[in-house]
Amino acid sequence: MSRPDPDLVAAFEATWPPAESVRCGGFLVGRGAGAGGRVSSAIAVGPWAHDDIDAACARHASWGQPPLFRAWGDEADLIAALTARGLTAHTPTLIMAAPLSALTDRPVPPVTAFAIWPPLAIQRQIWVAGNIDAARQGVMERVSQPKAALLGRISDRAAGAGFVALHDRVAMVHAIEVLPAFRRQGLAGWMMRQAAHWAQDLGATRAGLAVSRANTAAQATYASIGFAVAGSYAYYGRTA
């Protein structure tokens, strides 16, 4: 499966930035500061040579990070070069996208979802419960684009949290978490619709998100409200 279109790729990268990025030949290497593989990986941003892979690995090592690359599904040459070096694929992930018109065709029920900034303490607690720890929340803090923290409520309870940020005309949604006791009740869908209404008011026309291939339940939820697969990627690193 190929990569998403350039506007979607740009929004995907801009709205979840590493603490620092360094160019190593044809790669851009991210320093994640403990915030997970997404911001601790190297991506190809131009023509690359095999020596550039070595340089990227050395940069990872200088930061105390294991060698990690993120490759789109259509980067066959890069994938072959990485696997030849003993790096193996893991965490295959889909990028899904939807026109905002598909998500804003109905109002969000009163007191069901909100888009606010900064996040409330309860939102941070919900994220932590879903393994979105302080380091990952720090990624949200350093986003410079328009952004909002999503709060979802069921039965007068704060039950979900998420993050949305705008880059040009694309709104990317990240870190959607719903407490286990409140899942499968449609809350994630309403939070996505709230994000769409927020983004539409700021001039956006599309929404995007990343979801693990293994998370088929989330994929079904997003597909039911208008999202379609736009591309895929996987990480390449060393196994223990």
The main pleated sheet reads as: 8 strands, mixed
The CATH architecture category of the largest domain equals 3-Layer(aba) Sandwich
What does the overall shape look like?
A: globular
From the alpha carbons, calculate the radius of gyration and give it in angstroms: 18 Å
Give the SSE order as H and E letters. HEEEHEHEHEHHEEEHEHE
Percentage of residues in helical conformation: 25-40%
Under CATH, the homologous superfamily of the largest domain reads: Gcn5-related N-acetyltransferase (GNAT)
Mean pLDDT across the residues is 97
Question: Can you give a write-up of this model?
Answer:
With 240 residues, the protein is α+β, with helices and mostly antiparallel strands. It folds into two domains: 6-93, no CATH class; 97-233, 3-Layer(aba) Sandwich (Aminopeptidase). It is 32% helix and 33% strand. The protein has eight helices and eleven strands. It has helices at 6-14, 50-62, 76-84, 100-103, 121-129, 134-142, 187-201, 216-224; strands spanning 20-24, 27-31, 42-44, 68-72, 88-99, 113-116, 147-154, 157-167, 170-178, 206-212, 228-237. Strands 4-11-5-10-9-8-7-6 form an eight-stranded mixed β-sheet, sandwiched between helices. The protein is globular, with a radius of gyration of 18 Å. The model has no long low-confidence stretch (mean pLDDT 97).
